[in-house]
Structures are given as structure tokens and as C-alpha cells.
Amino acid sequence: MADLTLSEVDRLQTKEYWDERYQKDEDDAKFDWFKTFADLEPFFRKHIDWARAGELRVIMLGCGNSILSEELYDEGLKNITNVDFAETCIEQMKRKYADRPAMTWHVADVRDMAAIGSGEFDVAIDKGTLDALLSYTGSVWDIPDDIKASGWSYMDEVHRVLKPGGRLLYISYRQPHFARPIIGREYWELTQETIADPKGGFDYFGYVMQQ
Ligand SMILES: C[S@@+](CC[C@H](N)C(=O)[O-])C[C@H]1O[C@@H](n2cnc3c(N)ncnc32)[C@H](O)[C@@H]1O
What we know:
Blueprint: H1 6-11, H2 15-23, H3 37-47, E1 58-61, H4 68-74, E2 80-84, H5 87-96, E3 104-107, E4 121-127, H6 129-133, H7 145-161, E5 162-172, H8 176-183, E6 189-195, E7 204-210
Parallel strand pairs: 1-2, 1-4, 2-3, 4-5
Antiparallel strand pairs: 5-7, 6-7
S-adenosylmethionine binds at residues 18, 32-33, 62-64, 66, 84-86, 89, 109-111, 127-129, 132-133.
């Protein structure tokens, strides 16, 4: 994960922070906040029906300039709707991936995806975005009400854009006892697995929310 100062930790939930950050990037910048497709491939192969890759509609939530969408695309998941609220990043990604037209790029806040659609995605993927949304320097045992509400409204939106039977795959450093109060919602069944680091670094978690 990126090294952050304390004041950055508080700003990760703001659009201004991400706009500034992407404006400093070169046009072809790429950065995976943590974990690559190679690290996550077993998790994705297990939880995405790859036999139906050509027909699945995927939404990448808070895509940033990660190459995860590119790698999933090249593995067969062509129909990927990428969303981020940082315009500069989305403009850069649109230009960069003009040769992959089935992948689309949209400026939107993940807590309000009315312009993106409703009940149409088979798979939603979040790698680090909810983490940013919940980021602040206080105790993780006692998340302020407004931050919790922000997380819940995000979950409600993901639930709304997914098809019945669709699923959210959330990859995070956030341990289950801190993640579950936000992602455990009555409209889906939540399971989790540990994504261990083969080099002995700390564990990440793969959460599956099946509706
Ligand atoms: C920690 S980065 C993760 C980026 C990428 N998914 C990765 O794995 O490298 C979080 C991303 O989510 C975006 N983001 C944060 N909050 C958002 C929100 N409320 N709506 C849309 N995008 C958001 C940021 O602009 C940033 O690109």
C-alpha cells in the first residue's frame, strides 16, 4: 500500500485529494494501490464465472489508474464499466484504453451511480475504494457516524446497480471485525477469505457479497 502522511489519511475520502493526486500523474501513469491481478487471480477465478466471461457485465468501483481492469479484460472479461469520481483519472484512462472499446470509463461518485444504471451488473469489484471512503485518523473501533453512513450509502448503491444474483468482490486490508459492520447488509450474504502474502507480509481479505 502507498505510504501516507497522517493528514493524507484524513483526505483519502475526499474527491479533492484524488483530483490533486491524479493531476500530478503523467498521462500513462499506472498504480495499483495494493495487490496485483497476479496476487488476486485465484480469488477472481474462484468467484467469477469465467466460462461466461464474454457475457458478464462487470463494474470496477473506484478504478483509479490501476491496471486491474486491463488485466481482467485481457483475460476475457471484456465488458467492464469503470467508475471513479476523479475526472483527470477517467480522462487519462479513456485515452489510454481507446483500443479496448468494450471497456468504458465514467466519472461518478460510487455513492450515487444513478447515471450508470440499475440492476445490470453481474459482478462489482472494489479494490481499496471502500477503504479510502472509510479512511480517517481516529480509532477503527469507533468509526464516526457520518463515515459509517457514507459506507452504507455506497453499499446500498452497489446493491442497486447489481443484478439479482450479482455479487460484490471487495479486496481490502481491513480486517473482518472492522469491515463487517459496514459491508454486512441484510440484502446480501457475506463470506470472506484471507489472501495471504506468500512473502510473509500482512494478510489482505477478499470479501464476497452475494445477493
Ligand atoms: C485507494 S484508490 C484504489 C484505486 C484502485 N482500485 C487500485 O486498486 O489501485 C481509491 C480510488 O477510489 C476513488 N474513489 C474514492 N472515493 C470515491 C467515491 N466516493 N466515488 C468514486 N470514486 C472514489 C479514488 O479516486 C481512487 O481512484
